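re: that chain from earlier
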Amino acid sequence: MPRPNQIQYLIYPPSKEIIEEWRAESKERGTSLNNYIIEMVEKSRHSENSNPRPDILRENSDLKDENRKLRDDLRIKDLIIQKYEGDLYKLRYEAFSNLDEMGQKEYDVKL
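^ sequence. v structure.
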């Protein structure tokens, strides 16, 4: 039961192993598990590197730019492939388009 004028929170650690590590570290420091967790949270909040947001925002922006460039490059390459496939089709079946021409014609086995 919580003490008067105090707030109680529940935490859900990812595994029992982690909670056991926290207990061992709190014993090494000579403090309770509750105080150890509070100390670690506060230490993390007040550290100099606690604001990685600008780095993440810059990285996100860089990745979006790279993604846009790669999509544009892919779009251009798809158009080139379509053009080459059209040219290949024309060259492959050009002999069959003019039926008035006489003589032997080679055809692709896949036809």
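The chain has a mean pLDDT of 84.
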